[in-house]
Amino acid sequence: MDQISEPASPELVAAGLRAIGVEPTTRPRVLACLSGGSDSTFLTWALSEIGCEVIAFHLDHGLRPGSERDARGAEAIASELEIPIHSLTADIDIAAGSSPETAAREARYQIAEQIADETAADWIATGHTADDQIETFFINLARGAGLDGLAAIPPRRGRIVRPMLSVSRDAARQACSDRGLKFIDDPTNADTSILRNRIRHDLVPKLAEILGPGYRDAMLRQFAYLRGDAELLNALADAKLKKSMLLAGGLAVGIEVSALAGLNQALARRMVRRALALIGVETPPAGRFVEDAIRAAREGGSADLGGGFIARREGEYLVVRPSVLSVPEPTAGSIPGRIESPSLGIAVTGEIVDAPETWEDEPGTAWIAPGKAGNFTLRTPREGERFSPLGMKGSKPLADFLAEAGMLRTAREWAPVLASEGSGRSEVAWVIGRRVSSHFAVPIGAPEAIRLRVEPLVGE
To answer: Scanning 114, 321, 360, 406, which has its CA 20 to 30 A from the CA of 123?
Structure first.
């Protein structure tokens, strides 16, 4: 839908859904993001009018005074529409280099995905309008965000859908007034210290004055053209990214430097942006950040990607990751027994069995002495800890052992280990998938052994 359609109506929202492959007559369950403003109020009402099963969602970020008033207002709107609502509050962590608005948006989407899972929602709908598209274009233009940024707001990303991108903000507001739908005016929308508001109140009216009102339809058509070009480039970049690897439980991506070398620069930049998208970054990074990342791949070192993300050369890979990588909390249990770590996505099972006649290497299996049974944790390496690999005299820093095994620095931070927690200290018994400790080796001639096996946690 590449032109502005007025007046706003439920039929336009239905058409917006159909344009992105969602048929409202099948009664899909939709989680509507309800801020309480006229756009989201109209969306929530329209979705229910066209037959969707609607659940409302509101998140109070607590980033400005009076935000609790908006939460109460959204709850009242949902009540009047006879729609259930999940109204939550959250403490927003603003990463270095990120704005409060960006942090709030990312938190909103993250929590919306969680609520959608809990409520078995098919889709998450937002009330973005044609005006939001135009404002986003100019924000991204100023940031140098590349083709993806100039294509403005995508109508669909995953299960997030935006069926009002051809509806103007004024039309949505008028539709609410005509139907007696109450909504809340956000006072911060008048604050021109915020870039989006300056564009809205200063730039856009001047464009209409100079170019005439038809410029908005022309821009929407241009967004559609750019989006098509971006999709083609994304497909080419994704094909090149097939040799990349997910690290740290999917929180980071390693791109082979050789895959970037010699590429057309447009495609190389696209690969870095797609790597960020793989780890859940929605806002396209500024072009200068991407150029710095490609330079890091070529020359070594690291580059800031903004929003709390970096790109860093590690061996023969360019690793795209959060600047601060959180690691899972240890999971405690007993061996013999089973210990599961949903964060690491694995489980380790230990059982006492007859010692085999021959000790053959089997992927995902290790053997330790029965006398070492007791309390264990499934965790990641700790700074400065040492390891005594079976077959080697003495010990060495665990970090060195992992580096010698060819693991990238980021992967080493998340390398799973099974550690014994006896005698008031934690000692690595098994670097999972690599080697057991000589301190836990099965004695020669022992009739029994503890067989350890690691397996993925399916569905976690």
So the answer is: 321
Q: Could you give the CA distance from residue 310 to residue 290 in angstroms, rounded to a whole number? A: 10
Digit-coded pLDDT (tens) for 278-313? 887 877 788 899 999 999 999 999 999 988 899 999
Distances (CA, A) of 407 to 147, 254, 305: 34, 11, 23
Question: Under a CB-based contact definition with an 8 Å cutoff, are residues 44 and 34 in contact?
Answer: yes
The pLDDT tens digits for 257-280 are 988 888 888 899 999 999 998 887
β-strands 396-397, 417-420 pairing: unpaired
Q: What single letter denotes the amino acid at residue 109? A: Y
Nearest to 182 by CA among 399, 315, 37: 37
Over residues 167-179, mean pLDDT: 96
Q: Which of 46, 32, 35 minimizes the C-alpha distance to 122?
A: 32
Residue appearing with tokens 């109508």: 155
Q: Which of 256, 248, 241, 274 is nearest to 317 (CA)?
A: 256
- pTM score, two decimals? 0.73
| Cα torsion 156, 160, 166, 169: sign | negative
Number of Cβ within 10 Å of residue 306's Cβ equals 22
The answer for 180, left when phi > 0, alpha when psi is -120 to 50, beta otherwise, is: left
Hey, what are 83's tokens? 């729609």
Q: CB–CB of 398/384 below 8 Å?
A: no
Q: Is pLDDT of 342 > 80?
A: yes
Task: Identify any residues that bridge with 375 across adjacent strands, giving them in sequence order.
Answer: 334
